[in-house]
Amino acid sequence: MAEQFEVNLSEPRKPDCVKFNIQSIDDIFAPEEGIPAQGITEFYGASGAGKTQICLHLVLSILCQKEDNKVVYICTEGVFPMKRFCQMLESKCLKGSTHRLKDNLLLRHETTLDTLMQCVTRKLV
User: Fold this and answer.
1) Residue of higher predicted confidence among 124 and 4
2) Based on the structure, what is the number of domains in the chain?
3) What is the DSSP code string of 8-54?
4) How many CB atoms lie within 10 A of CB 54?
5) Phi-psi region of 28 (alpha: psi -120 to 50; beta: other; left: phi over 0)
6) Which residue has the higher pLDDT, 106 or 123?
7) Is residue 5 part of a domain?
8) Residue 25 CB: number of other CB atoms within 10 A?
9) Phi-psi region for residue 50, left (φ > 0), alpha (ψ -120 to 50) or beta?
């Protein structure tokens, strides 16, 4: 006996998106719906351009939105700026929630293309 499956041919569901919640930055990076919440978003540019600051702000926006939101932050140079992150976390989120929010941040440090590819294709799946 064959099983029957219902096929839904309606429009595919749009992915959840996040915004920076700073109008001028959203106008540049996420003018329509925002940056997809699932997947990989890469920021690149010259040294000192503010890439890390923008990424930290986006991480905090995601972590502070919902209690169970999680973020994977992949560093490809240097080390994660934990001191700056904690300062931003304490100023932007509710006091007492910083420990929980830090637990929802997964940090990876991948310095070669091979380890980066292994990380995104095997370890994060």
Assistant:
1) 124
2) 1
3) --SPPPPPPEE--S-HHHHHHH-SSS-EESSS------STTSSHHHH
4) 17
5) alpha
6) 106
7) no
8) 15
9) left
- State residue 95's pLDDT score: 60
Alpha-carbon distances, residue 111 vs 3, 14, 74 (angstroms): 49, 33, 10
Question: Quick one: 101 exposed, middle or buried, by C-beta within 10 A (0-12, 13-18, 19+)?
Answer: buried
In a domain, 80, yes or no: yes
Query: Which structural domain range is residue 114 located in?
Result: 17-123
* Structural domain contains residue 55: yes
Report pTM.
0.73
State the Cα–Cα distance between residues 87 and 68, nearest whole angstrom: 21
What pLDDT, on a 0 to 100 scale, did the predictor assign at position 68? 83
The pLDDT of residue 5 is 42
45 found inside a domain? yes
| Residue pLDDT, tens place only, 61-101 | 888 877 788 888 888 888 889 889 888 888 876 566 666 77
